[in-house]
Amino acid sequence: xxDHRNEPTLSDVSDWWATNISRIEPNRxxxxxxxxxxxxxxxSFAGIIWLxxxxxxxxxxxxxxxxxxxxxxxxxxxxAPSIAVARMAATCGIGLNNAVATGVNLLGDVHxxxxxxxxxxxxxxxxxxxxGIDVASAAGMTVREWQDRSKYLPGFGHRFHTVDPRRxxxxxxxxxxxxxxxxxxxxxxxxxxIEQVLADGxxxxxxxxxxxxxxxxxxxxxxxxxxxxxxxxxxxxVGILAHAWEETGQGRRNKGPMPPSILPTFDDGSRHDGS
Amino acid sequence: xxDHRNEPTLSDVSDWWATNISRIEPNRxxxxxxxxxxxxxxxSFAGIIWLxxxxxxxxxxxxxxxxxxxxxxxxxxxxAPSIAVARMAATCGIGLNNAVATGVNLLGDVHxxxxxxxxxxxxxxxxxxxxGIDVASAAGMTVREWQDRSKYLPGFGHRFHTVDPRRxxxxxxxxxxxxxxxxxxxxxxxxxxIEQVLADGxxxxxxxxxxxxxxxxxxxxxxxxxxxxxxxxxxxxVGILAHAWEETGQGRRNKGPMPPSILPTFDDGSRHDGS
Amino acid sequence: xxDHRNEPTLSDVSDWWATNISRIEPNRxxxxxxxxxxxxxxxSFAGIIWLxxxxxxxxxxxxxxxxxxxxxxxxxxxxAPSIAVARMAATCGIGLNNAVATGVNLLGDVHxxxxxxxxxxxxxxxxxxxxGIDVASAAGMTVREWQDRSKYLPGFGHRFHTVDPRRxxxxxxxxxxxxxxxxxxxxxxxxxxIEQVLADGxxxxxxxxxxxxxxxxxxxxxxxxxxxxxxxxxxxxVGILAHAWEETGQGRRNKGPMPPSILPTFDDGSRHDGS
Amino acid sequence: xxDHRNEPTLSDVSDWWATNISRIEPNRxxxxxxxxxxxxxxxSFAGIIWLxxxxxxxxxxxxxxxxxxxxxxxxxxxxAPSIAVARMAATCGIGLNNAVATGVNLLGDVHxxxxxxxxxxxxxxxxxxxxGIDVASAAGMTVREWQDRSKYLPGFGHRFHTVDPRRxxxxxxxxxxxxxxxxxxxxxxxxxxIEQVLADGxxxxxxxxxxxxxxxxxxxxxxxxxxxxxxxxxxxxVGILAHAWEETGQGRRNKGPMPPSILPTFDDGSRHDGS
Lengths: 275, 275, 275, 275
What we know:
4 copies of one chain form a homotetramer.
Chain A: H1 10-16, E1 22-25, E2 28-31, E3 34-35, H2 36-39, H3 45-54, H4 60-72, H5 81-89, H6 96-105, H7 114-130, H8 135-149, H9 167-179, H10 186-199, H11 210-220, H12 226-250
Antiparallel strand pairs in A: 1-2, 2-3
Helix pairs in contact in A: 4-9, 4-11, 4-12, 5-6, 5-12, 6-12, 7-8, 7-10, 7-11, 7-12, 8-10, 9-11, 10-11
């Protein structure tokens, strides 16, 4: 360090913060190479999300599909930890931005991360299929391999809904997009093949859930798996904000998870499980 | 507490989490009274933001104006603390959601909160005007009063841009919306009157900045002041996500604020100021 | 900007991050002017908290009092929003550090900020007393003035405890420290005078609560009011971490605020209040 | 759900928040079975950290070792992302608690998580040794296996210090604790064996770093690996708070990562790397 090759310059400082996303100079704001004044009024909010993340503009068909996925995930009520903690945060005398950040912080591997993992799962099926195995068999092999590792198959099944009302409209839009030539459909086929594997011989099927449906859409649109979580963050932030704001209006202070008259159980170790 | 009137019931527990925003039951998801399956594919992302926050659907004109404001604020490059910290967070081995939350956490009174304060400022002018004072005089009185308290007038001036490229297209859209009968225009008039006051006799005017422009839009659309910050959060989250994701791709670990070969000054107290 | 006076140099970059707290150079780590190797093994954890925040070392008496306040606030169970959200966060597949940050984020004006406000309240009494008014009268005047503005008097009363078990030991330690000449006692006298005002003629007194007791200690020790919140953050982080860690061991995923079989009430607007 | 086995009761609600850590009832606060009034004034801050995390009290020797590790990690200056973002956060108009939470949020796998991984590494050596292999050989085998997977060996080497001034005093305290019978020393032996492997035949050795030294201590004291990160959070929070507070006093608003007159490089894709 500090040897002659590394003697720092102001250029090194500028380069340390180099970015391809925006170019901000006095009186100039370009986003992905487009002057911001050309975007305002002409691009939709979903459209600029695509532009900022991908570096180019979406076609109408692509944007429509992205928009449907973003709309579908905005909220799942106070049982979702992200929503509940934002409501509690809103009663603690912190800013609305801090309450939203609190909710977003919880959208981890287990709460929102399933979409990212599901894209990997679907890629497994596609990879096997690309090597000449039919989709149904590829799905069967993939499911068995994943189920050996974990009882949760990301993107399938729901602890709450037996038929998630978001499944059919979302997959219907993907089917339409395949018919219109907007997307290729290989992820959709992989997902429905897995769903079929999980239904065979079962009395209670394990349908594609919301994480699975949006994973299909994001994968068909060419987003890399980590952005499935990123896009979920943008979508769920809407519900988090709405709930934090509603709670603000109720005037509670220091809201706990249940009415104050109910005391948590003191677990002296004699209980047999933690749930 | 725990007297007979307050003996808790399961109803109290349900009521503790009462909400008007969403109704989630097995196989049912209603958002603001609309089944989610009716929204998917038919409402835009900006449209559902309006629905979730307002409880009703926007008109096309309202949605167009909201969308323009959301688009305009997505990014202001790595000099914005929200963007810089999200990039640094992305190098520390935490989830993309945690990196976004880190950035959002910084959108406080000083960084994003100006829109909320500007709406209060504009309301002061409107209040005076409603009492019979002409707008120009009302703006002058308001400016003098606010400047007595602080050297910052929220929504006006920029440390960086002398002419913010986002000003004209945003205010132009508001003018058009006034002409189309979408909004009334009183906040626009208050803001331009203040801008005029600040320009009179100055060689360097203090134009409406991005916080001021979006405050005009959110106020014209009927949002309460705290939601100016809330909407800014949704908008800037897009840029925060894009930058965190770009940083992830650069493979840095544990990124500090400047190249490691440059050491922070040790301030032994002999320096005359902290900046 | 960018005119000849402001042409930046590498020194400006170093100065941008100037600090008096630590001096970190290759093979050198000084904290507040002390080589870290001289501190390890010879200073307590409470002692280094004092050193880092104050720039000098504490006396044994000062450290003992600080330590008592830090110990007293570590936990208040799952009803405290900070604790509850950290437990929920721990089930969402994020790091233990992210779960702790989630809890700390909630320690705002209403949840932990009372100590900071209480120090201002006590300063009001002292100020009046320093102008020649006896403490009891000064307390009465201050209480009336504050109660005109808000029904909450920061640092007094508890929604839960009628006699907070932390009050007597904490105030007893302050009394002892006054007797030992460690602190002056003026904040203690102001606080007990207020407590007396609030008890006069009441069947249910409003005793000093934990925020009030720690505010007395931090004020007696010379900490500025905002650090009452800062020190509470360090203290409560211990409980937040312990609870997040315990929850991790219970193996729950995506923990909501109540058992999943209980649904939140849908509030269609016919309910008369939000609580 | 909602079938007769699962019909919820108020007991289920209490059990949902069951904890062994604290028992909070009106006028009663027990921490790990001890009345809080018995702890205040008699237990140190490091002591209550041990009690809360372990459920029992530490011996003097254990507490002394824990305290040394907590002291050693409090700060590493503004180059540490956790410190830098907290300083930036403090200029954005958010609470001091929110600024601390912002810093803590960054203490992930790459920034603070090394201690947790190092404990796993040391366990590998101990496991091999317990199977009859001498420590030096066990260390060699473990190092080769880990280096096949990653170029970073957690707990060893530093990008900044060739000799970390914290190494010798920390390991010296562990040696003393072994001599005193406080801890067994097997983790210390594993760590120094790895250090020897990394030094053999090198002109530039790769010494145990601070994450490695504290991992040795936490492991010798019987903490599970994830708590290495948890304890680092408690320690580093002190430095984060001190820096956020210092920044508050400097009066800057909206502080970016470098002086505003220096612009980030716009990376049009022609640069060959991202650093």
